[in-house]
Amino acid sequence: VQLVESGGGLVQAGGSLRLSCAASGRTLSGYAMGWFRQAPGKEREFVTSINWSGGVTRYKDSVKGRFTISRDNAKNTVYLQMNSLKSEDTAVYYCAANLGVIGSAPEFWGQGTQVTVSS
Fold first, then answer.
1. Residue 115: φ, ψ to 5°
2. What's the Cα-to-Cα distance from 76 to each of 1, 23, 31, 70, rounded to whole Å?
3. Torsion angle of C-alpha atoms 59, 44, 4, 15, degrees rounded to 10
4. Are 96 and 110 within 8 A, CB to CB?
5. Half-sphere exposure (CA, 13 Å, Cβ side) for 104?
6. Contact 21, 77 (CB under 8 A)
């Protein structure tokens, strides 16, 4: 599975960005998808995940109410809508996929896309 993220960039605090992750190489049937992020000097951390059907989502506490994950299985794409962005959201955002559920070590990763929030 190849995962390719897009949509990152520079945005002012309070602004919005929408990240996309397009998957290719095989069917993602049964795969959960997720987003992780890594800020400079920090470890990579879980942000959000969504199960195959889209009916179950999980969020890091600090992004609840601001970020929304969704997926379009017909397009093999997962999205991350980020609103009310804060400077502490600045990081490289990685898309991930894993059969069943997203754990701490998903099987497949994208290359990452930079999100920079200016204060």
1. -120, 120
2. 11, 5, 11, 11
3. 60
4. yes
5. 1
6. yes
Q: Which amino acid is residue 104, in one-letter code?
A: S
For residue 26, the model assigns a pLDDT of: 80
Distance CA 76, CA 78 (A): 7
- Joined together, the tokens standing for residue 109 give 């990763």
Could you report the per-residue pLDDT of 53-103, keeping only the tens digit for each? Answer: 999 999 999 999 999 999 999 999 999 999 999 999 999 999 999 999 998
Alpha carbon separation from 109 to 12, 16, 33, 87, 94 (Å, rounded): 27, 24, 10, 24, 7
Query: Rounded distance, CA 50 to CA 69, Å?
Result: 7
How many other C-beta atoms can be found within 10 angstroms of the C-beta atom of residue 78? 30
Can you list the positions of beta strands (E) in 7-90? 9-12, 17-24, 31-38, 45-50, 57-59, 67-72, 77-82
